[in-house]
Amino acid sequence: MPNLFTAPPLVEFRSLITHCPACGAGLKVSKTRIRKVSTLHIGEFRAREVFLRCKPCERTYRSEELCALVPPSANFGYDVMVHAGKALLLRHRNEEEVAGELAQSNLRISPREVSLLAMKFVSYLALVHQRRACDITAHMQTRGGYICHLDATCEGGDPLLMSSIDSLSEIILGNVKLPTEEEQHIVPFLQRIKEAYGIPLALVHDMGRGILKAVATVFPTVPDFICHFHFLRDIEKDFFGAEYDTIRKRLSKHGVSAKLRYRAKRLKADIDEHPELIEALETSIGDAPLPAEARQFMPVLNVYALIQWTLSGKSEGRGYGFPFDHPHLAFAERIRRLHGEVEKLRPLQLRGEWKDNKPYSKIYLCLDKIMRDRTLWKSVAAIQEKITVFEKLRDAIRIAPSSGRHGLNDEGQRGSIRTIEKRVKKFRAWLTRSKDCRQDCAAQKMIEQIDKYWEKLFADPISVETPSGPCLIQPQRTNNILEQFFRSLKRANRRRTGNASSRRMLRTILAETPLVRNLENPAYLKILLKDKASIEEVFAETEIGTLREAFKEARNTPGKIPAKLKPLIAMPDFPEKLVTMLEKAVARPESNRILR
Fold this sequence. Notes:
The protein is built from 27 helices and 11 strands. By secondary structure, the protein is an alpha/beta fold. Strands 7-6-5-8-9 form a 5-stranded mixed beta sheet, with helices on both faces. Strands 1, 2, 3 and 4 form a 4-stranded mixed beta sheet that branches. Helix 8 runs antiparallel to helix 18 (about 440-450) and helix 9 (about 255-275) packs antiparallel against helix 11 (about 300-310).
């Protein structure tokens, strides 16, 4: 858009009120102030605000029009703030891209200012969200209430970002940053949820000890269920996690992946010189005779193809992750297959020349050491037996099917919860009768875990009263609604920053940032706006003092190093200087009196 002004125009703003509403006295000019202001629909201009004051009441009146455009003492309007917040947090643009978008509206802004506006956007939204708690509760009551899903995410340590979402309305209710996932940190968060939205119909979460204790403290009488996916994942990690760790560590120790890739790279150079070999292999596998001219180099292609087939075992799985997928086990099994197939191929001389079969001999010798690793193959045999047991429980609980295509988004196969309960009961009876179970501590522990969480696994439909009459609500069997949300949050961060790690993002974002996702929910947006036409109008109602206090508190991340302490810690000789300072303090005790 072309610039409408050669220089920022000067616009005067004053209150429309001429007499004090309280005492009726005429208002007098108290002072004037000029500041630069930028909005999307005007661009940059100079605002001269006239402050009017009632002397008897000692009250100051500001321009209603200017306050509706821009926050007090700010330079960028509410519309710029909303644009920056939505662009960064909903459209996943980075700061430079947003600054470029605003430049097209003749707004000069730095990427750092864009980031700051987005954080203020979150703070405003969080305050409005709190003000609308009663309206959100009324909306959820039209469905009979809310089912509170709880989960936390972190990467590489603290802090954890914990969120709560209602699975019926899909409204994010609240968020908090925690130093650890312990009861004493979670309880205050749940108490705030309880005060704002009342008692939920049920709760769904993982098996974290802190969450279990906190829920029992705050919601002692509410039906409490654990996610089937988390239950199955955690119970099977305990069941054969030790064997799988051994396989992973032994493969790493042998460095077999690097060796196979190196060998494949050497072979690829020969294959590139004879591209016709691939076509010859393709036709020969289809029962056509092998061309005579391809016989000399066929061992090269065979070994290369077998190596690539072996390496592809590392990506085998359905996207569920361990323990549902076992890529390291699949890789180990393919290594054994590779060794066995090469052993069969070594004596087959296509031209009667033993030199042609050198590729077979080299890869055979490359695998010799790992094939003699008794610890590895003993663990492979042990885990295969346990996986058979795991697959029976997996089939009984009807979650994350081996033929599934949804990966971590799998919600579990549909069916009566009582049918699933009977299947799990049947599995438990089978495992208890098994002869090996009595001697296997891991199997005994699995039975103990099933018994311990039995009441939290199988939820009867909840009968609730709604404005349209009674209805039955079946709590979700998984916590995928939050798992998917956290994954989308991390994907958005990768889009904006290009950084695969989300650790910095989780440290720096405001805890209430996930509330922005509610703006994609039409029902929530209607509640947020209430009788206003835009989010900007809603934000303009927020008292600036309240906003500043909330913004300051929101940026106080658990574990964050105070800004003034950082340069001291950065000093290379900080420990020595600290000791020297204390030694001087001890030598001169009068300094202690001054400090007191």
